[in-house]
Structure formats: structure tokens, C-alpha cells
Here is the input.
Amino acid sequence: MPDLAPYAARAETSRGRLHPEPASGVRSPFQRDRDRIIHSAAFRRLQYKTQVFIFHEGDAFRTRLTHSIEVAQIARSIARRLRLDEDLAEALALAHDLGHPPFGHAGEEALNGVMRPYGGFDHNAQSLKAVTVLEKRYAEFDGLNLTWETLEGLAKHNGPIRRPSHFMAEYDSRHSLDLSSHASLEAQVAALADDIAYNNHDLDDGLRAGLFSLDEAAALPLIGGAVQEVRAAYPQAPATRLAGEAIRRVINVMIQDVVAEAERRLAALAPADCDAVRAAGRPVIGFSAPMQDANQQVRDFLFGRMYRHWRVNRTTQKSKRVVQVLFSLLHGGPDMLPPEWRDRAGEAGSAQCAGVVCDYIAGMTDRFALDEHRRLTDPHIPG
Here is the structure.
């Protein structure tokens, strides 16, 4: 058994699964959760779901799958330093994006817009739905039947849920996830690992795409020091290698900051166990104030120079239209859905139909959504 801190989540005292199962003889409950997530259809589909660039724009850019793997690596590094359960942190990191629709944030905005009359769309709630309802791998239950700790972390890794979505509230009424409290330290680690990976790897992809230069990124305090260091160490290296060296240094600095700040907060809080962390009035895992400010500057830079770049804007608008057209056609004509979805959709135009069509679209990859759009809108392509 690993030498865990007293405030770590403990597999041997897990609150269990909604559907009781015999224990595995070779894996802990959290290791089993991780493996079920990796083998799920939703996880495989992340390979062709957009991070920022749609899959056909180049195969060197991140997808939701590669992003999730990178988040998991960072989460394990932080969890190990803090003596937390690495398997739970990894499982949450791997599962945190399972509910994302195709086309990244553009797809989410479009789905939220068309679903507004029916309660909207939230990818965190959709991740919970994917692992509790939509996966159909097992004979005895829908979903993956993950442990309470993994489901709790998926639902509220970004903090307590004050206004849960309809699905999350309905699920919580059957299987309470204590939505009003904070999540475990492992879930908080996965959330911070997501922030670290997201910003740094978007910087890398933005540089690869030529949306901004290394000198422009180096104007940011968090990036500038690393760029200066690698240029001094490797004066003859090309910009692509300098960028890689600088970004990995920035990731390391951010991890060190999170660990130091968490140790400071843990020393002040002195939680006796994992439940004491949940009852704390604030997150325990976070950046220091200076790092938070520096990280926000990176976010602002990426928002202006990458997420709102004219090339990205064009793709965003086209992607939104694909999702909107798909929803409109299928909500008005559920008889065009595959049989396993059509049977659940009910009457055309109904709220029930909207929810089923939303789930169908949310599970699509970028390329499947584009193909489905062509099949439904181009009269020369057979359905």
C-alpha cells in the first residue's frame, strides 16, 4: 500500500458503487475506475474531438484525448508530491472531458444555445451522464458503475455545485454526491492539472499554428523567464525547440507552485481526513496569488491572440452552424436517428427528444459530426 497522507482519499474506505460489485483481487477500486474509463467508448472518441483546432487542420495539434493524457501525467506528479491517491487523481484527469461535444467550446456554446429552452448544456454534467447512463458496456447496469469518490470528483472538481443542472440534480437525488461541499484533494488536483496543461499546451499549439511568435509569448512574465533561460542555454537552437524547452520549464514551475501553496494551506487547515477537506470553506489545492495573476495573463493572451484569432473565429462559426443544423434536423425528425437513439427520443419537437438528440450530438467526434451534417444536408450523398 502507498504511504498516503491522512487527508488523502483511501480506496479501502471508499463509499462504494451504486451497484455493489465484488472486489477485484488485483486492483484497487480507484484503479478499476481508471481502467473502466480508459476502455470506455467516450474515452476513445476523445481522439477525434477538438481541443482548439479541428482534426483536419493538422495532426500535430492537441485533441481532447492527448490533452486528457497530459492532464493525467501532471495530476499524478502533483498527487505523488502531496502523498495523495495517484490512481483517483489519474482517473479524474482522464474522465474530466468525457462530456465535451465535438468542436471544443464552439460545440458546447452551440449545444447550450439550442438546449436553452430545455435547461441548457453543461459538459461537466454530461461527463457524469456519460459514465452513469450513456455507456452501455455491462450487462447488469448502465454506465461504468464508478466509485462514489470518482463520481463526486467528476461532478464538483471545480468546486461545490450551487445550481446543479437538471440531470445532476436528478442523479444526486438517487445517489447523493454531497454537491454543496468541496471535492477530495485528488479531484482538486485534477482540476489544477487541467489548468496547467490547458494553457501551456495551447501556447505550444498556437506557436505551431503561427498565430503568434515566441517573442510575443515571451512578453508574458511567466513565459519570459523560461524563454530567456533556454536561449542562454541553447543559443543555436531553432524556435520550435526553444518553445518546447521553455514550456516544459513553465509547467514545472507551475507544479512546484501548486505543491508549495497546497502544503501551506494544508499546514494551516490541518485536516484530519478527507472529509475535513470536503468541509473546508475554500479549495485547498490552488496557485499562489502571484502565480494566479501570472496564469491569468497567459489566459488573457491566449484569448486575444488565439481563441479570437480570425482563423479560429471562422472555424468556430462554421462548427456552431454544424451543431445547430444537426440539432434542428434531428429534433424535428427523430426518425432520422439510428434505431437505438430513435427508440428513446419520443415525439418530434418534445423536451424528451431534445435531450436524446443532445446526447447523440454530444457524443460525436468532429469528423463524425461533419460527416453526419453532409449526409443530412447534401442530397447527392446517400444517408
Remarks:
- The mean pLDDT is 93.
